[in-house]
Design brief:
This protein has 17 helices and seven strands. With 440 residues, the chain is of the alpha/beta class.
């Protein structure tokens, strides 16, 4: 398939276009067209503004959220109950054209799934047809975890007829690892059992899972988690889930799979004199309008006119690191990108000294090569969304990342207590002032 670009939405929003963008099939232009990147970035910025305008007090949270989504990195939303963490995540998926999985409504599907295999028949026959149809429909998976959640609820039940033939196969259509599932949102991620968390460690990092007797790739592009609290106890300075040492070790390994953590603030009405002008009143009015839309139309939000598609995100993610593969890249040529890289690693080295050391019962923040790889991509995505001139066509390339994008380090805290969060912010500001200076 030869792509015509994101403006031709009829062909752009297809599984065939996804496969070309992801390199699963041929047809991608030799040099990444900068106009494709510009159009996708323009639509994603409209999505950013939509998210920002629909909730009160988010600040730049929607900017960092979409930067992480573009970079195909996991992001964790932290906040007390009632601050709309779930709505923010699901609206993000909705604006990307992802739908909730539908149940098996075709009688042919139901009959095919329960019919015993004929002697000598291939166990792949019915699976491949259903798999192709499911993958052609981009969707998301949303689940609220608890300590009673079973693997079958996330990954699907074992197919008994295939197990009798020596194949361990989970029927995962519409579930987290199912074909076509591009977005995953797991609520209360730290309350799952160790069995679930250990299985998620590989999926969240490598986007692979065990099925059909081996490790197979999933279609997940973006993974959003949410929690009312981070793992607590063990010198975090706060009460939280998994306060026992063994539990905390397991939860901490899973926490590290989320390179950035975004605090969703509660609305404030602490000043009675503000009346209807308080954040609390404005946030409630917005929630009431969303509820009115839901009761009238079945949807909490308007149609997604001129909003991006998941393929826009996939293309922008590919574009971020095009220069690392020897391609023309999307960032303006010159020394500025090299200067940013130098500042990035100097700040990381400076922060590492004050990082989390579990053996010393000190939980602050973590700096590792794996995390830095993720943070670097997110910073590039942040720079892409921030460049007004590129989106408006006054720049022929994206301006290289700078001081604002180095603030990605402010979102890596391992404990949500104010001493850690505010201490990290101060350290980042100090190091940005020290190291984020032109080298030439």
């Amino acid at each position: 398939m030869n792509l015509d670009g994101p403006k031709d939405r009829r062909t752009w929003e297809t599984i065939e276009a996804s496969q070309v963008i992801l390199g699963e099939t041929t047809g991608f232009p030799k040099d990444l067209p900068i106009e494709w990147v510009r159009e996708c970035a323009r639509r994603v910025r409209r999505m950013r503004d939509e998210l920002h305008d629909r909730w009160v007090g988010l600040g730049d949270l929607s900017h960092w959220l979409l930067a992480a989504v573009i970079a195909r990195e996991n992001v964790l939303l932290i906040g007390p109950p009632g601050v709309a963490k779930t709505e923010i995540a699901l609206r993000t998926f909705d604006l990307l054209g992802l739908a909730q999985p539908e149940g098996v409504v075709r009688k042919a599907d139901r009959d095919e799934m329960v019919r015993p295999l004929a002697p000598g028949a291939s166990p792949f026959a019915w699976w491949e047809d259903r798999w192709a149809r499911e993958r052609a429909q981009p969707k998301y998976f949303h689940y609220l975890l608890s300590r009673f959640t079973q693997p079958e609820e996330l990954f699907g039940p074992i197919e008994i007829s295939l197990l009798r033939q020596g194949l361990s196969v989970r029927v995962n259509f519409g579930l987290m690892t199912g074909p076509g599932v591009r977005g995953v949102f797991l609520d209360e991620v730290f309350k799952a059992s160790s069995t679930i968390l250990n299985t998620l460690l590989t999926l969240t990092l490598e986007r692979r899972h065990f099925n059909w007797g081996g490790m197979v790739p999933s279609d997940i592009a973006t993974f959003i988690g949410a929690s009312n609290e981070l793992p607590g106890g063990l010198a975090t300075g706060a009460y939280g889930v998994g306060s026992g040492p063994e539990d905390f070790q397991t939860l901490y390994a899973f926490l590290d799979r989320f390179p950035i953590r975004l605090m969703v603030p509660p609305a404030s009405g602490s000043d009675p004199g503000r009346g209807m002008e308080s954040n609390l009143a404005e946030a409630t009015q917005m929630a009431v309008r969303r509820e009115a839309d839901r009761m009238a139309t079945g949807r909490s939000f308007p149609d997604r006119a001129d909003m991006p598609h998941i393929n826009d995100i996939l293309l922008l993610g590919r574009a971020l690191l095009d220069h690392e593969r020897g391609g023309p890249g999307i960032f303006r040529k010159g020394a500025a990108l090299a200067d940013f890289q130098t500042s990035f690693f100097e700040i990381a080295s400076a922060l590492q000294a004050g990082g989390t050391h579990l053996e010393d019962a000190a939980v602050t923040w973590t700096i590792t090569p794996r995390k830095l790889r993720s943070l670097y991509k997110i910073a590039l995505g942040h720079a892409l969304l921030r460049d007004d001139g590129f989106v408006s066509s006054t720049h022929d390339a994206v301006q290289p990342p700078g001081r604002e994008d180095l603030q990605v380090f402010s979102h890596i805290w391992d404990a949500s207590v104010s001493d850690v969060v505010e201490g990290l912010a101060r350290e980042v500001e100090r190091n940005v002032a020290t190291y984020a200076t032109p080298r030439r």
